[in-house]
Amino acid sequence: MRRPPVLLALLSASGLVLAGCGGDSDAASSDGGTTVVTSTNVYASLVEAVAGDAVDVIPIIDDAAQDPHEYEATARDQLELSRADVIVMNGGGYDSFMTTMLEAIDEEPDVIDAVAASDLPGAEEAAANGHDHDHAHDHEEEPDDDSGDHADGAHGGDAHDEEGHDHAHDHGSFNEHVWYSVPTMIAVVDEIESHLAETTPDSAEALTANADEVRGQLTELDDRISDLAASHDGENAAVTEPVALRLFDDLGLTNVVPDQFVSAVEMGSEVSPIAVQEATEALDDDVRVFAYNTQTSGPAAEELRGQADGLGIPVVEVTETMPEGTDYVTWMTETVDAVEQAIA
């Protein structure tokens, strides 16, 4: 594949620097061992849980304050990716910086795509489209001001208005935040085990044992989510943008915030006065929990959170990436704990 000119220039200009100041990650990439590069620390956590010490894991984004929607890859990132034996990414257009870097690699690396691995409605099309579009930077139109539809179509990408307008993403209406879908992460664990068993066959037995343990933990969490859904199905929830919607959908919760509000906040664009008014009014509809993404916010989202606080609606803070010092199972379990406490 043709390498993007800017990326070629970056690699050429920084070649000596990279050779001279390579840290632990550079050493890990060149010591002959197996290296796995992931788009975020979410997927790095799953790889580490399955592989243990059998591989070296390098997340491109390992900062809880970094919004992957806005991330721009560096020459060092490209170098790490080019050295990887296995690559794990979210896909669906979410981590489009990974797609850009993959297009700059001559050979076809071994890639695990979480969206492609899922059984979610619309995932197959989203996985294909994700390789053709950036996440949220190429929108040609702002959402219509008169839409009042709700962004409750996280599963299966149903977030569109009555005239058929897609949820405002360049890659379609599919909600690509699939790491908030525990069944999807179980499928990703399966993929990690399978791919690494081929790459590190001497560790196959340990990989299976570790994967079984993680699958058991995630299955237990998924069963708990199903039990909560049986008790709270159809209850109302609210979000500022779509990151938590897959979990809310699995919990049987219905988002009442208009799609126009949710889409605008996610894209970092101005929220229309009508959408703000409708979102504010929606909070009066017996909302049990309010999810606030601390990594994708803005004046309108902050104001809506203030409204939720004023109404006594429990607020659960969610993030795109994991906080430091935790792992995926613990992080997602704590998120479910917080939601359960709120809706109880």
From TrEMBL:
It is found in: Cell envelope. Residues 1-19 form the signal peptide. SUPFAM superfamilies: Helical backbone' metal receptor. GO terms for molecular function: metal ion binding. GO terms for cellular component: cell envelope. GO terms for biological process: metal ion transport. InterPro entries: Bact_metal-bind_prot9, ZnuA-like. The keyword Transport applies. Keywords: Metal-binding, Signal, Transport. Gene3D superfamilies: Nitrogenase molybdenum iron protein domain. Residues 125-172 are annotated as: Disordered. Residues 130-140, 148-172 have a biased composition (Basic and acidic residues). PROSITE patterns: PROKAR_LIPOPROTEIN. Pfam families: ZnuA (PF01297). This is Zinc ABC transporter, periplasmic-binding protein ZnuA.
